[in-house]
Amino acid sequence: MRIDAVTIFPGYLAALDLSLIGRARREGIIDLRVHDLRDFTHDRHRTVDDTPYGGGAGMVMKAQPWREALTHVLDSDDGRSGPAPVLLVPGPGGERFTQASARELAKAPWLAFACGRYEGIDERVYEWATERMEVRVVSLGDYVLNGGEVAVLAMVEAIGRLLPGVVGNAESLVEESHEGGLLEYPIYTKPATWDGGDGVERVVPEVLLGGNHAAIADWRHQQRLERTAARRPDLLHDAATTGGLADLDHAVATPADAAELAVLQKACWIEMVAPVENWWGAPAEDADTVAADLEHWSTHVFRSGGRLVGSVRVRRDPTEPRTWQIGRLMVVPDLQGRGLGRELLALAESLAPPDVDTYWLNTGADQQRLLRIYRKAGYRISGEGEGPGTVDLTRRA
Ligand code: SAM
Known about the structure:
Layout: E1 2-7, H1 19-26, E2 31-36, E3 49-50, E4 60-61, H2 63-75, E5 86-96, H3 99-105, E6 110-114, H4 123-130, E7 134-139, H5 149-160, H6 171-174, E8 193-195, E9 201-203, H7 213-231, H8 238-241, E10 249-252, H9 258-273, H10 287-293, E11 298-304, E12 307-316, E13 323-331, H11 340-350, E14 358-364, H12 368-376, E15 380-384, E16 390-396
Parallel strand pairs: 1-2, 1-6, 5-6, 5-7, 13-14
Antiparallel strand pairs: 3-4, 8-9, 10-11, 11-12, 12-13, 14-16, 15-16
The chain binds S-adenosylmethionine.
S-adenosylmethionine binds at residues 90-93, 115-117, 119-120, 139-141, 143-148, 151.
């Protein structure tokens, strides 16, 4: 991703050289270019502001340096970053920047930030820029900062960490606060019993020590709900109340969904990867492999508040045209156990053309929970699968 930031304090953004974002820059995942607005002034004092028309307190940023700086950004690209960037202008009067915005913006190949100072930027700059690129005014929250730089630091970090390869452990992205509209559950590390020096022994909740993954998932989901209800009741919307597929936004996947689909695979199948290493290869797929598969399958994606929460793919068997193949049926861990998987399966079957006589799917031979679900839905094991340790299941259409 290419990112340009125009500011009168380039040094403010030096923090983006540190930590994971700094590493992503060095590895070429993020191409961040910081521009000094004062380089686009032509007077001795490098003036970027002037008094407001109509009177009032404070100064306003002049249009001319902004036009030149943004023209420089636009012209510096010889088509390599694709179409013009999305221009993000931080401002307390903008749309609220959320995890859903970060996810959406992480798909853009090129972002530009215009950091305001003083009372803000001459309104005509917005008009001028809107004729050349998509412009969005974005607010970090309902409070006033001195300038846009802090907002750029926050947004670049929130967006950048969603880019494939920036955060090493992709599963951690799925479990976090605001993913699925809920806050994160409480977390603990060793030792299991800790004396804080006040004579009180504080212990880690029993359930986390037992290794019962289903019980841990239940406990964590309950904790997320309780914590969200206590601290942010305004967030208790779709994730907590998702009743079924009808509550989700449905679309056919495009290559832009590939990175999220790869993360969803890992989140759904992480427990399977551990005991049976790569038992069908799927959990190890990267975004490129997922994108390549999109050409051979019709992949359906389901979103809640912008977040990818489920998916399934279907196609006619290339060698047995009357067989309808169903694959990669996934529901995010925090929404499992609500019947969404069964609904996805029914939807996948309903997409079959009328001349199909068999539904087919494949799973790990040791996946008792999945096998139970498929058996309940009428599927029977028809033989060993192609991948080692897998079985094929079929049902008459
Ligand atoms: N006069 C402006 C208003 O009332 O909307 C506030 C200007 S503020 C002092 C200066 C700059 O700080 C803004 O142009 C913007 O770049 C940045 N800024 C302030 N609060 C912000 C927020 N909540 N989110 C994002 N940027 C903010």
